[in-house]
From TrEMBL:
Lineage of origin: Bacteria, Pseudomonadati, Pseudomonadota, Gammaproteobacteria, Thiotrichales
Protein name: Cache domain-containing protein
CDD domains on file: PDC1_DGC_like
Origin: domain of life: Bacteria
Species, as recorded: Thiothrix caldifontis
Length: 395
């Protein structure tokens, strides 16, 4: 079972590396004798293309990363690609190390077709072991073999900051009583009935706009929107078939009402910091919360029920920290200078830093910064790497 999204991706990359690396190493040896004559090289590329499963394009580069063959695809060979300098493409960045024989690039969006793609690069070496060129093979991610193991959402608490503009204007607003607020007890009782007796396994309540979105076990691919007028009428339950409590649910039936009661408390606990929307999925046991400061939280129902209001609104709470961030003015000039310093360390070090921060660690390089400053640094470094690593690269 995959531990995280990145773990799932890395596992599949390992499978692809094993699948592609061995084949390309063999073909690189066949290409070497043809590299001095373009027509023979193109013919060799046609044979390589026909022998490789799943590939979209194959081509050969010289030792400097300049294309010397045509680009071969299922329709033939494109000689106009000869002379194209690919040396600075993201998929070539690791090949500047002369000791590397094979590299499978990170996924990118191809320049022409705008499709998720990946490129495998294999070094071509002469009898003395000197690198004389590269074999490049491009793949459309949709056509590669994929793992049948679906990524599983992590169960640990996740906190996601929202729109800074909303946070900065937090104290200029207060909760306005919605239609749903006036009928909250009836509305929540209807939600409990829909979950326990009518086959609904997931709901998202929008308190401020007085509506709810539900997903039913009999038709899980379609969501249904219920307005407040529908939710305050208990006869709505007649519109759905009676079903026993879902056997895949991990939330005990008795805890559904407790979750709803806690949601009500968070909605009315404070006139400035209040719950705008919330969700519950009884199958994976996740509660989702979105507050007026636009901060979102995703946590297990057990952890949610274990926290009282003091946790959410006390001086040391996570929401209080978000509110503090709302009035904090960041010294972006100082932070931008730090981002430049970190970016100069190189892609490998930056990716290690980003990976650590994504997993909740505080690397030594950023330990002196506040939570909000670290968030700013993370977002800026991520944007730099997204551009560098191939957001608009490829063929």
């Amino acid at each position: 079972m995959a531990k995280s999204l990145q773990h799932s991706i890395n596992s599949h990359r390992a499978l692809l590396t094993d699948l592609l690396g061995n084949a390309l190493n063999e073909y690189a040896g066949r290409i070497l004798p043809q590299m001095d004559e373009v027509e023979r090289l193109d013919e060799c590329m046609r044979r390589v293309f026909s022998a490789l499963d799943y590939c979209k394009y194959v081509y050969v580069l010289d030792a400097h990363g300049v294309q010397i063959s045509s680009t071969v695809n299922r329709y033939g060979a494109d000689p106009e690609a000869r002379g194209r300098d690919r040396s600075e493409r993201p998929y070539m960045k690791h090949m500047h190390d002369a000791s590397i024989d094979f590299n499978l690039s990170e996924a990118y969006i191809s320049r022409n077709k705008k499709r998720p793609s990946i490129t495998a690069i294999q070094s071509i070496r002469d009898a003395n072991g000197q690198r004389v060129g590269f074999l490049g093979v491009d793949y459309d991610l949709r056509e590669l073999p994929h793992s049948e193991v679906i990524y599983e959402e992590p169960s640990q608490w996740r906190q996601i900051k929202g729109d800074p503009a909303i946070r900065s204007g937090l104290f200029a607003q207060q909760r306005v009583e919605s239609v749903m607020d006036r009928h909250i007890d009836v509305v929540l009782s209807v939600h409990e009935a829909l979950i326990l007796d009518q086959g609904v396994h997931h709901f998202q309540i929008h308190f401020s706009s007085s509506r709810t979105t539900i997903w039913h076990r009999d038709d899980p691919y379609v969501y249904r929107i219920l307005t407040n007028e529908e939710l305050i009428d208990p006869s709505i339950c007649l519109a759905y078939p009676r079903r026993p409590y879902f056997e895949r649910a991990i939330v005990p039936p008795a805890d559904v009402g407790r979750v709803l009661k806690q949601l009500k408390a968070l909605r009315f606990a404070d006139e400035t910091i209040y719950l705008r929307s919330a969700s519950l999925n009884i199958v994976n046991g996740t509660v989702g919360l979105n507050f007026s400061c636009d901060g979102s939280h995703y946590l297990s129902y057990e952890e949610f029920l274990s926290k009282g209001l003091d946790f959410w609104f006390g001086d040391n709470s996570s929401i209080a920290s978000e509110v503090a961030c709302a009035v904090q003015t960041l010294d972006t000039h100082r932070l931008d200078a730090e981002v430049d310093v970190l970016a100069s360390l190189g892609c490998i070090q930056v990716n290690k830093l980003l990976y650590a921060m994504e997993n909740g660690d505080v690397p030594e390089r950023v330990v002196a910064f506040s939570v909000d400053e670290r968030d700013y640094i993370y977002q800026e470094l991520k944007a730099v790497m997204d551009v560098y690593e191939g957001g608009v690269c490829g063929l």
